[in-house]
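ARCHIVE CARD
CATEGORY: sequence design from structure
SOURCE FIELD: tokenized fold
FIELD CONTENT:
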């Protein structure tokens, strides 16, 4: 979970920002990842930020820095874990449905594609799955971040169409918060 950003446009770090339901963005994303069977769950957060019990925290000492620094910190923690890949999930996408996350994971299990991306109406969204073979590229990418790695694996990329517009809902500002949104966690609570 990429949650270390300062949230300048939002007015506070988005990891602690709350949906109209009162749930913190980070709590929703961690709960969804847990319900999808992701383990371990790594949350890259600003120093001193509390993470949900289901997640392991990694502190990014430079929350104003580039997002790839958070990706690298998360990868370092996962390096010794017996996992085949990871869901790369920005915390400002808390409106994703559990079904979409499961579709991405299932897409990997069925095809072993190195990168699996959910799509809605032909637009790519989050979370994306990166198989372990891509991690060296994620660690070394200099320009374009994870998007560059997605493009590098374009011939072996799997796009998974989902009926969920939540994969595209990037909440950058308070104006992006829908006032009557159904909680992302309602699907499994």
């Amino acid at each position: 979970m990429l949650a270390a950003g300062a949230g300048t446009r939002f007015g506070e770090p988005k990891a602690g920002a709350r949906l109209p339901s009162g749930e913190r963005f980070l709590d929703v994303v961690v709960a969804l990842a847990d319900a999808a069977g992701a383990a371990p769950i790594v949350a890259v957060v600003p120093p001193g930020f509390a993470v949900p019990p289901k997640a392991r925290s990694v502190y990014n000492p430079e929350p104003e820095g580039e997002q790839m620094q958070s990706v690298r910190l998360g990868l370092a923690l996962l390096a010794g874990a017996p996992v085949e890949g990871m869901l790369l999930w920005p915390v400002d996408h808390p409106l994703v449905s559990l079904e979409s996350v499961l579709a991405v994971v299932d897409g990997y299990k069925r095809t072993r594609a190195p990168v699996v991306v959910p799509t809605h109406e032909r637009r790519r969204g989050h979370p994306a799955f990166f198989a372990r073979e891509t991690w060296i590229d994620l660690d070394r990418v200099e320009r374009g971040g994870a998007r560059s790695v997605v493009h590098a694996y374009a011939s072996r990329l799997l796009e998974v169409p989902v009926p969920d517009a939540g994969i595209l809902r990037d909440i950058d500002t308070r104006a992006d918060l829908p006032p009557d949104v159904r909680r992302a966690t309602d699907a499994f609570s």
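CARD ANNOTATION: The chain has five helices and seven strands. The mean pLDDT is 89.
SHELF: design records, drawer C
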